[in-house]
Structures are given as C-alpha cells and as structure tokens.
Amino acid sequence: MNKNTLKTVLEKLENTYFGAKPQLNFSTEYELLVAVILSAQCTDERVNIVTKELFKNYSTPQKMLTLSHEELSSLIKPCGLNNSKAEHILSASKTIVEKHGGKVPSTYEELNALSGVGRKTANVVYSVAFGGDAIAVDTHVFRVSNRIGLAKGVNPLATEKALMKAVPKNKWSSAHHWLIYHGRRVCTARNPKCETCFLKGECEYIKKNGKL
Ligand code: SF4
Known about the structure:
Layout: H1 3-17, H2 29-38, H3 44-57, H4 61-64, H5 69-75, H6 82-100, H7 108-113, H8 119-130, H9 139-148, H10 156-166, H11 172-185, H12 204-209
The structure holds iron/sulfur cluster.
Residues 147-148, 186-187, 192-194, 197, 199-200, 203, 205-206 line the site of iron/sulfur cluster.
C-alpha cells in the first residue's frame, strides 16, 4: 500500500471511529486484566455478563485466590475455555500478589511475564490501563489489517510488527480500537459489507477478489 493510500485509510478509520473504546466493563487494572483473559474466543457482551457477577465478590487478586480452580472455572464457564482461563487468572493473580504487592504491574515486560498473560492481553492492559503505546492484534485486527493491506502478516506477531511500522506510534492504541470496530461492524469474518464500506476505494481485498 502506498503512503497516500495508507494516510487516507488511517484518516477514514479515525474519522469514523474517533473515541472508540474497549467494550469490556471494568473499574480497575486488575478487573481489566481478568476481563481480557476471559475475552479470548468469547464476545465482550458475554464477558460483561460474567464479570458483573464475578467482580461483586472477587475483584482483587487476593479475593480471587480464595477460589479453587474448580470454583472459578464454574463461575466463568459461560465464557468458554473455562479450565485454562481459570488457571491463567489464578496463576497471574498469584504472581501479582507475590511479586507485585497485589498491584497489576504497569510495564509491558512485567505484564507479559505474568503467567497466563500472552502478548495480546499484555498489550491491551498496557495501552488501556496504563496509557502505553501498544497495538494488540486480536482476530479482528489481524483479519481487517490483512484484508485492507494496511499491515500484512502471516500471524498476529508479524501483523503487529507491520502495524507498528504503518501507524504512527501515538495512534497505536487508538488504531487497535478502530480496527476492532471496523471488523465487528463492517469487515466481518463472513460476508464483509464491501458494497457499503467506506474503505472500498482503498482496500486491497476488493482489488484482489474483484468483489465490486
Ligand atoms: S472493502 Fe470489504 S474487505 Fe475491504 S475493509 Fe471494507 S469490508 Fe473489509
């Protein structure tokens, strides 16, 4: 994608999705971390339903650690992958209590080092909770970036690196949300709404597939 087209794509995304924010409900860094872990392969709406109940009694790592693996797994069952998610939440909580005095660490490296916290989760928490410059690549960001031709990569890490080159650093966090919104509303996994998409003039997917 040439520089002018890239500039146009970013401007259109920003104008359309200006102020886009995470759809997950949370009131502390710890709640955000738990919600992001729960959101893997689950909708934000469902995560919000589960965390509304979960955070009533278990909104800190100390309180979370009073639950057994089986108890937590049962509470978060509607989110799917509940066994592994329970394991990740409990092991991250243990590290937060033992190594960080009960507070979610604020650097990307420390977040990524928490057991059960992968690159995407660390990037989201780092940027949303601590205002860090990071661009998390989830399924929507990966699909939409590659379709448009904004940032091509064979896997999320390669796409993240390509996005970091294509998007100005001060827009990384915002671009993550723009691409998620576009992926949910327009550039859906199945049957993307190319005919009415505001990026149809620039998008490489259309040119390749001769969709219009
Ligand atoms: S034109 Fe189609 S493929 Fe390209 S961004 Fe829009 S919806 Fe997605």
